[in-house]
Amino acid sequence: MNQLSEKDLHMHVQIVAWLNIVASSLFLLLGMCGFVFFGGVGVFAAADSGDAVVLPILGIIGTLGLVFFAVMA
Fold this sequence. Notes:
Layout: H1 6-49, H2 54-72
Helix pairs in contact: 1-2
């Protein structure tokens, strides 16, 4: 059987830790991009139509997306 030495196991743990950090950073970046996207769409939609109801709804959707991806990270 192939057994990992302590040095090999330590290296694998470090690699998995870095992959976890990178994945969490990508989730946070995705959440922030969604927040900015929905906020921007809400601002443009409110300015274009003159209807101020759109802005808070899209802001809430963007905030929920940001919170979801922050929790997933």
